[in-house]
Amino acid sequence: MKSTPIRIMESQSQIESMLDRRDRKLLAERTKYKAQPTSKMHKRINNLNKGRLKRSSFAKQSKLIETENEIIQEIKNLTPLETHASTPPWEKQPQIEIRSHIRTIESKHKHSDLELKDLTSTYLNENFPKEEWIRLYTDGSAENAVTNGGSGVYIEMPDGKTTESSILTGTHCSNYRAELEAIMEALTILGRITPSIPQAKAVILSDSWSVLEKLEVLRGAERQQLAKGFKNAVQNTQSLVLQWIPAHCGIEVNERADSLAKEGSQLEQIERDLMYSEVKTIIKNSMKNKWKESHPEFNRQDGVHQLDRRGQTTIFRLRTGHNRLRHHMNRVFKVGETNLCSCGEAAETAEHVLQNCQTYDALRQSIWNEAVDMTTKLYGPPHELERTAALIAKAGIAV
Ligand SMILES: [Zn+2]
């Protein structure tokens, strides 16, 4: 309806609001300046002087928004952004083969967990036989994708021996970072154990497709750090492959790496320098988490999309309160003489019609044989929403 505020439409469609978007961009920009010690804005952000004029500025506004976000506020140490490539382009980078797909797996969603497990095991056995290859399973995890990160590595040697390692990755940490640290830890371990193994072959397994995709285009400090790890590992191995495998497909050892990562995140965390790109992800995730906290009704996926158009309209109008029921029509549009329901007992609102109005008692009982609360009727699973829409339709109410 025309009267529905944009703010409500945004939250109902679960679209990031313009305000949130602005705040997120502002916070990211502020972080960028913080990571550029030579920029003019860097100084202005750090020495915010009072000034004579009560004028708003980027430095002031972004500080205000930062104060409202505890997680971002706590981040103190940033790795300075590089102004040029850290290694000259003519210097050869150590190479590693990255395989971000398994040929037989078309899409993760097309297969059951059991099929995924079978396909993955077969692929691994054909390409990296246990008896010849060192297999390093890696995994990373972070609480709510923003804090207390941990990484785990689980190693299977060709002779059947196993080793495991669990490390912490910092108070402020994204899932991406935790996954990356797991791979680096695997490389470090490999560099340590391979010198004593002649013609070693090793495969590092990760379920993070996004990390593997990004590894090839890494720049700056991340690249340098990784290259150092690669160098040792590459020098001492005959073949080194980084292979993607599907997550939680029930391969026992991969599950073990997952629990090692969680153990790592339980260790006492340290403050570590963060990269601008990481903080950007953390800003995004922390704002998403905040949104979810303030909209508990959207705890599960919204079932409204499974209804037909008429049903969707009904639910949407009942949720927002911007509908053709008398209360809204009379109060907002000044239509009709009263906002009272035809039963004369109370204002005609969504709650009155769905829960209390005696006129619809029989109809209500034919649809729900027990008492159901408003939240379930308006935000519950699809079949509940369908019932609500059915009541309105059968009662002949035009919402
Ligand atoms: Zn009534």
Describe the structure.
The protein has 399 residues and is α/β, with parallel strands linked by helices. The protein has 3 domains: 6-68, no CATH class; 97-273, 2-Layer Sandwich (Nucleotidyltransferase, domain 5), CATH 3.30.420; 303-394, no CATH class. It contains 17 helices and 6 strands. The protein has helices at 6-12, 18-34, 40-46, 58-67, 70-74, 113-127, 175-193, 209-215, 220-235, 252-266, 276-294, 309-320, 326-333, 350-356, 361-367, 374-379, 382-394; strands at 97-99, 133-143, 147-156, 162-168, 200-206, 237-244. The protein has a 6-stranded mixed beta sheet. Strand 2 and strand 3 (147-156) form a beta hairpin. Helix 2 (18-34) crosses helix 4 (58-67), helix 2 packs antiparallel against helix 11 and helix 7 (175-193) runs parallel beside helix 9 (220-235). The chain binds zinc ion (ZN). Residues 341, 343, 345, 352, 357, 359 line the site of zinc ion. Zinc ion (ZN) is lined by residues 341, 343, 345, 352, 357, 359.
Outline of the structure:
By secondary structure, the chain is of the alpha/beta class. It is 48% helix and 12% strand. InterPro entries: RNase_H, RNaseH-like_sf, RNaseH_domain, RNaseH_sf.
Please render the helix and strand layout as text.
Layout: H1 6-12, H2 18-34, H3 40-46, H4 58-67, H5 70-74, E1 97-99, H6 113-127, E2 133-143, E3 147-156, E4 162-168, H7 175-193, E5 200-206, H8 209-215, H9 220-235, E6 237-244, H10 252-266, H11 276-294, H12 309-320, H13 326-333, H14 350-356, H15 361-367, H16 374-379, H17 382-394
Parallel strand pairs: 1-6, 2-5, 5-6
Antiparallel strand pairs: 2-3, 3-4
The structure holds zinc ion.
